[in-house]
Design brief:
This protein has 346 residues and is an all-alpha fold. Helix 2 packs antiparallel against helix 3, helix 4 runs antiparallel to helix 6 and helix 19 runs antiparallel to helix 20. It is 69% helix and 0% strand. It contains 20 helices and no strands. The radius of gyration is 28 Å and the shape is elongated.
Length: 346
């Protein structure tokens, strides 16, 4: 009776562990990727694709259930028990890994190397477990050894899922940004990858468009871009500037001028009377352009921005004889989110 109770406990623990991992993997880590994959797979059926995106919790639970059910043929075919019982989830792990391999080009985006590694791991794990299962074992400390063996096998299966599944952090981040933009979640979008240096032209454009959609608190619509644009890494400033030129919004044009470092056109185009508070990067650009109008209309803000500019110039003075790369690196930590730094080094 005690042995049956122990075996039953092991089966429950393995099932709960795998179910928890599969659900978290699908719902929290692979959500945008699976939604993008379903959109490509069901591009002729937008209704079903939309349902999957909106009811992703139910979809994650369903896929988790399918993975758990695959343990049944695993148990029948592989016939592992006690300390090796977790190996019966081999098919389940392969299923979870395979369906999360999308790479924007193929639903099964795994590379040849990944298939070879996963196949080798599967074969080795199976053979080792078969060998271990055939070796007579002492009953001493049987239950702890069984739990430890199953936990080890579960960890190996989770690693196999990671090998087959798409773990490209940047791809997941970009897909999340695209998803949030389509939902109009602009504030949340701008928090995704806020401090990451890796970016591309698509992400840069979506961020800029999101900034143009944010409430402006008494300023012209879209002017929040003047407070946020240079807080992010920008891969190709000139390319983003050209994209902004196609947007019918004066703030997009002003941002384009800043990206092109055309502070003369910027100063000629901005109407300070439209602003309740001048966006930070706009003020910095006017200081660089030696435009004194802002000092009259926004005296305190002008003084603060001017003080920061003087501080930046002092920092540059201390490394004036160094290469520009060294100057940029020396001032990066303190000033890289200012327009002064961008204008000087980009």
């Amino acid at each position: 009776m005690e042995r049956k109770t122990s075996d039953k406990s092991i089966r429950w623990i393995c099932g709960i562990l795998f179910a928890a991992f599969a659900f978290c993997w699908l719902y929290f880590f692979q959500r945008e990727l699976l939604c993008a994959a379903s959109n490509e797979l069901l591009q002729d059926n937008e209704t079903l694709a939309g349902f999957i995106s909106k009811q992703y919790l139910a979809v994650s639970l369903l896929l988790t259930l399918v993975a758990l059910l695959l343990a049944i043929p695993g148990r029948i075919l592989l016939r592992f028990a006690k300390g090796l019982y977790a190996c019966n989830y081999l098919f389940s792990a392969l299923f979870i890994g395979v369906i999360t391999g999308y790479d924007e080009e193929s639903l099964l985006g795994q590379t040849r190397t990944e298939w070879i590694v996963a196949g080798a791991c599967t074969l080795v794990l199976f053979l080792v477990c078969k060998v271990v299962s055939s070796v007579p074992k002492s009953k001493y400390n049987d239950r702890p050894r069984s739990f430890a063996g199953n936990l080890l096998i579960m960890c190996l299966l989770f690693c196999m899922v990671g090998i087959l599944g798409n773990t490209n952090e940047y791809l997941h981040r970009r897909l999340k940004i695209e998803s949030l933009y389509s939902q109009g979640e602009y504030e949340r979008l701008l928090q995704v990858g806020r401090y990451e240096k890796e970016t591309d032209v698509t992400v840069d454009l979506l961020r800029a468009k999101a900034m143009l959609e944010l409430p402006a608190d008494g300023n012209p619509k879209g002017s929040r871009i003047g407070d946020m644009l240079f807080n992010y890494s920008i891969l190709v400033p000139s390319g983003l500037a050209n994209e902004l030129d196609y947007i019918d919004n004066p703030q997009a044009y002003l941002a384009s001028c800043l990206l092109k470092r055309d502070i003369t056109s910027f100063a000629d185009s901005i109407n300070l009377d439209e602003y309740k508070t001048l966006p930070a990067f706009y003020m910095q650009a006017l200081i660089l352009a030696d435009d004194s109008r802002a000092s009259v209309k926004f005296p305190q803000q002008y003084q603060e921005a001017r003080s920061e500019y003087d501080s930046f110039l002092n920092a540059l003075e201390s490394v004036k004889d160094e290469l520009q790369r060294i100057q940029a690196n020396t001032t990066y930590i303190t000033y890289h989110t200012t327009y002064y730094w961008f204008y000087t080094f980009r």
